[in-house]
Design a protein that fits this description.
Blueprint lengths: L1 H24 L4 E5 L6 E10 L3 E4 L3 E3 L12 E4 L6 E8 L4 E8 L4 H6 L1 E5 L5 E5 L2 E7 L3 E7 L6 E7 L1 E3 L7 H18 L7
Parallel strand pairs: 1-10
Antiparallel strand pairs: 1-5, 2-3, 2-4, 2-6, 6-7, 7-13, 8-9, 10-11, 11-12
């Protein structure tokens, strides 16, 4: 009788260990930052935190792609290891010549929602079911942050919108980059302006 109890106990431990490994170690959690075409941003700081465990910076810098279409949403970023509960962002908008900052509080159930397998088509056309392991933070003019979860662009789902606040900063530090940006996008901005809603 004791042998059966011990075997059941051992089986339960192995099952739980297997679940932990699959859920926490085998999924490559990723966070990236995107911006609409013609509305380039410079991410000064993206800071992730798993409270009580780890706080770290993900270098991003220039963000000029990709909000939607064949290449979006997707953007530059890095690993979320461990999965954070807070993401702080500080960036500069070239089109507006303004600085923004926000703190994103990750919903407690988001990791579980992202873990659920969804249809994923490989480059060879094979269909699999994968977790939505990528979080994309879209920076829009006016300081709005649109957050998507996805495994690939075709199954991106918007999960929340977070407002940012305008903060002080020295636009002079972006003088050269701003001149290059205006040379490339000035005509577009003159024609279309800088929409602050509808993103």
């Amino acid at each position: 009788m004791n042998v059966i109890k011990y075997a059941c106990y051992l089986w339960c431990i192995l099952i739980l260990a297997g679940c932990t490994t699959k859920e926490d170690k085998d999924i490559p959690w990723y966070v990236g930052v995107a911006a609409p075409q013609h509305y380039q941003m410079w991410v000064i700081n993206m800071h992730l935190e798993k409270s009580g465990e780890r706080s770290w910076r993900v270098p991003v810098g220039d963000v000029s792609c990709c909000w939607k279409g064949d290449n979006g949403p997707f953007g530059t970023g890095g690993a979320m290891d461990p999965f954070p509960n807070l993401i702080g962002l500080h960036w500069f908008s070239f089109a507006e010549q303004k600085f923004y900052s926000t703190l994103i509080k990750i919903p407690p159930d988001l990791k579980d929602r992202m873990r659920e397998p969804v249809r994923h088509t490989t480059q060879r056309g094979n269909v699999r079911h994968e977790p939505r392991s990528t979080l994309i933070l879209g920076l829009a003019p006016g300081g709005e942050v649109v957050v998507w979860m996805m495994s690939q662009r075709s199954n991106a789902v918007e999960i929340m919108r977070v407002p940012a606040v305008e903060v002080e900063g020295d636009t002079g530090q972006f003088q050269v980059r701003s001149a290059d940006y205006m040379e490339e996008n000035g005509a577009y901005l003159e024609k279309h302006g800088v929409p602050l809603d509808g993103w």
